[in-house]
Amino acid sequence: MLVYPSGVDVSSSALRFLTQELQRHRRTIGSRWRRLSAGRQALLTLAHLRVGHTYAQLAAGFGVGTTRAYRYVAEAVELLDALAPSLADAVRAASAKAFVILDGTLLPIDRVAADRPFYSGKHKKHGMNVQVIADPFGRLLWASPALPGAVHDVRAAREPGIVDALAKADIKCWADKGYRGTGAMVRTPCWGRWETLSTSQKAVNRSHAKIRALVEQAIATLKAWRLLRKLRCSTTRITELVQAVLTLHLTSSE
Description:
The protein is α/β, with parallel strands linked by helices. The protein has helices at 12-29, 38-51, 55-62, 66-83, 87-94, 153-158, 162-168, 199-212, 215-223, 238-253, and strands spanning 100-108, 119-120, 125-134, 140-143, 147-148, 173-174, 186-187. Strands 1, 2, 3, 4, 5, 6 and 7 form a seven-stranded mixed β-sheet that branches. Helix 4 (66-83) packs across helix 10. It starts with 11 loop residues before the first helix and ends with a helix. The model has no long low-confidence stretch (mean pLDDT 91).
C-alpha cells in the first residue's frame, strides 16, 4: 500500500484535548510503553472520525498493525463517549436559550434489504435515526442515542426522554410536521395542504420554516465528520461514535 502525507481539518484544540485525555487514561491504567504516543493515537482517531479512513489505511499511515489501529480507535472513542454531555446537561444549556430546534437525521449504514428494522421509508435507505437539538443560531447542542432507521421521529424523540425533559424545563421547541402530537412545548407547522390553509396560517408556516431550517446547520456539523456519512461498523457501536463526535465538536467550539 502506498502512503502519503495528508491533512485532517480538525482544530488543534480537539487534538490537544484528546491527547490529554489519553495521557490521563494511560496513567490511570498504568500503561507502559506503546507503539504510538498519546498524541499520535489522538491523531489516528481524529483521522478515522473526521476523514473516515479505514483501519487498513490508518495502519499503513501510522506504521502499526490493523488490529492495533482498531484497538487505539476503540479506546479513544470509549473515552470520548464517557465525556459526552447527557440530556440533562443539554437541557441545562438550552434553558439559557430562547428556544431550541429539534430534528432527526439518518446516518446511512451498509445493510441489505432483509434488515428491515434499519430501513427508513422516509429516506428510502438503511440507517440509524439520531435526534439533534440545536440552539436558535443552528449550533449543535446535543445528539441522541442512535435508533434503527425504521423508528419514527416522534418515538425517537420520546424514547430518550427529550420531549419530557424539554417540557419539564419549560423550554420551547420548534420541529417539523413529523413531530405533530408530541406535546404542547413542541411547536409544529399548521396542519393541512397548502391550498387549504388560510393566509395567516401560511404566514405562520413560512416563519416556522425559516426558524426550523437552522437545525440543518447542526446536522451538517455532525456529518462534517465523514465517518458518519456511511457507517460500516456494528450498529451497536454507532451511538458511541456519535457521542464521541459530539464531545470533540463541543470541545473545539468552546
